[in-house]
Design goal:
The complex is a heterodimer of chains A (285) and B (149). Chain A has 285 residues and is mainly α. Chain A is built from 13 helices and no strands. In chain A, 77% of the residues lie in helices and 0% in strands. The longest helix of chain B is centred in the middle third of the chain and has 32 residues, at 69-100. Classes of the chains: A mainly alpha (285), B mainly alpha (149).
Chain lengths: 285, 149
């Protein structure tokens, strides 16, 4: 019993945080989960989940997943290259500090301001669109528009790449220079080093970071909403329309079923993330 | 975000003189380094420049005099300051305490702090707004937009 008491006293320091997490993270998720299986009178039903996995909502899930995969893999690779470039730069300390600060700012861009930046840049009369047109290549004559899935991907890179740089830099710092020196002393070329040493060591944390980007892309909402006015049926936007009351009366709980669906997708991603993170830690210790 | 970045910056910095700088020997990929840095810089700076051109420098003068500008700026700043202070007040003691007393909880804490990035805020809003602070099944525009909720 005294052991239990001591344990409780030691846990006291995390109570405020625990209360906060319970109120604002766990309780809403529980509420969403319960609501997803309730009809309007509070009785149990599967019709919400059924509706959420068919028709326009199923399409929303697919669009969301496709967009999230594209905007986690592409910025994942680009972010790794950029982070590596910054990491290996001569007199890198100043550059690295600047890059981390800038990445922190850009990673928090989103919503209407970000949409405006890109309408001014790649909109039909945007700055870069005009440059390209004057060079003889009109992107809008070749099937590109900013207000489509491919346009949204370009915009998402603006906050996803900096996020990748921020989360992958610690992993790069785990690459010991001595490993490269040792590999070269044993006759390894650059390719051999990356194939047998650098790559395998980096891979788990790279995949973990990509999964983090996947979640970030899946939950992004305001940017696409501002850019496309809901013409791309993403799940997050569909939930938003439930929140705004733009639905037929009596279907409110479908919004919660959609929310539950997103949590399930994230949960699957998180399980993989944690497993890989653990492997990465084992390698780098 | 800054917290994520801090995790690694305590690692090994490049030795200043006579040592090994980073993973690649210096100068080996210097052209590629410049290409990458230039393209990255262009991608991040051109939209800012384009937006500035579109808005026009003059717009900054006139927007200050716009009705409601001062109050909405004040509200934004107030929200930013309050949320920042609350976050620091909540997280700093917790992080120090866990680091010193309950190191076993570090992984769990890390996991929890990642959750808000990956769980769609929209899901949390549906949960908080509708079920904790309002009528059970009333999802109406009034509930969602009421400024005091």
């Amino acid at each position: 019993m005294p052991k239990l008491l001591r344990g409780l006293r030691r846990a006291a320091g995390v109570i405020p945080f625990g209360v906060y997490v319970t109120l604002f993270l766990i309780a809403p998720m529980v509420a969403v989960t319960i609501g997803a299986f309730q009809d309007n009178n509070g009785g149990f039903t599967l019709s919400n989940v059924n509706a959420a996995t068919h028709g326009v909502y199923l399409k929303g899930f697919w669009q969301s997943i496709i967009l999230s995969v594209l905007t986690s893999v592409i910025p994942g690779i680009l972010g790794l290259i950029i982070a590596y470039t910054i990491f290996t730069a001569k007199r890198g300390r100043v550059l690295r500090q600047m890059a981390i600060t800038a990445a922190g700012v850009f990673a928090n861009f989103g919503g209407v301001p970000l949409a405006f930046l890109f309408i001014a840049t790649l909109g039909s009369s945007g700055l870069v669109s005009q440059w390209l047109t004057s060079l003889g290549f009109d992107p809008y004559a070749h099937g590109f528009t900013l207000y489509s899935l491919s346009g949204v991907v370009v915009v998402y890179l603006y906050f996803q790449i900096p996020l990748m740089v921020l989360v992958i830099l610690p992993a790069l710092e785990g690459l010991r220079p001595a490993w490269r020196e040792a590999a070269e002393n044993l006759g390894a070329r650059t390719w051999d080093y990356w194939r047998y040493v650098g790559g395998p060591v980096l891979l788990p944390s790279f995949l973990g970071c990509v999964l983090l980007l996947f979640g970030s892309a899946l939950s992004a909402y305001a940017t696409t909403e501002a850019l496309t006015n809901g013409t791309i049926p993403l799940t997050s936007i569909q939930i938003g329309s439930f929140l705004n009351g733009n639905v037929i009366a009596g279907q409110e709980n479908i919004g919660k079923a959609l929310g539950l669906g997103m949590v399930v997708i994230i949960a699957v991603a998180m399980v993989i993330y944690v497993a890989m993170q653990r492997r990465a830690a084992k390698w780098l210790r | 975000m800054a917290a994520l970045a801090q995790g690694g910056s305590g690692g090994m910095g490049p030795p200043s003189r006579g040592g090994f700088r980073g993973v690649a020997p210096p100068g080996r990929h210097s052209i590629w380094r410049w290409v990458v840095l230039l393209v990255t810089g262009a991608y991040f700076l051109i939209p800012l420049w384009a937006a500035l051109r579109f808005a026009g420098i003059g717009a900054f003068g006139s927007v200050v005099g716009e009705a409601g500008f001062t109050s909405s700026l004040a509200l934004s700043v107030r929200l930013a300051v309050i949320t920042t202070l609350l976050t620091i007040a909540l997280i700093l003691p917790t992080a120090v305490y866990v680091h010193l007393r309950l190191p076993k909880l570090r992984r769990l804490l890390e996991g929890i702090t990642i959750l808000p990035i990956v769980i769609p805020p929209v899901v949390l809003i549906v949960g908080v707004l509708v079920d904790l602070f309002a009528q059970p099944t009333a999802i109406s525009s009034d509930t969602a937009k009421a400024p005091d909720r």
